[in-house]
Amino acid sequence: MAKIERFEDIVAWQxxxxxxxxxxxxxxxxxxxxxxxxxxxxxxxxxxxxxNISEGFERESNNQFIYFLVIAKASAxxxxxxxxxxxxxxxxxxxxxxxxxEQCLSVSKLISGFVSYLREKRREKExxxxx
Length: 131
Prior knowledge:
single chain, mainly alpha, de novo design (two linked rop proteins), about 80% helix, elongated
């Protein structure tokens, strides 16, 4: 894996930003934009994903980074639930729902893979310490 020097290099952060843009776009539509509570909450969930990835990275601690990645993944789950609510309220179409849900799942998988990688690196480091 190439060395990541900035959080902007992290694919999960990049995809999280794309998801954020899509959420802001869809929540600006007339029907959705009038449901202030759901609009604000779904935007907060979307913003939380790349925000927690970047915050964790800037902590400069593997354990802290993993912690914030797990929070980002949880925000993706929260966002998926809010997409179901938006679909059920007819704020978004089935096609819009499916596309956004797939983006959420993709980001979640990227984050999970990154967490697994970081945990493995942490284990390797612990095992290589002299007893």
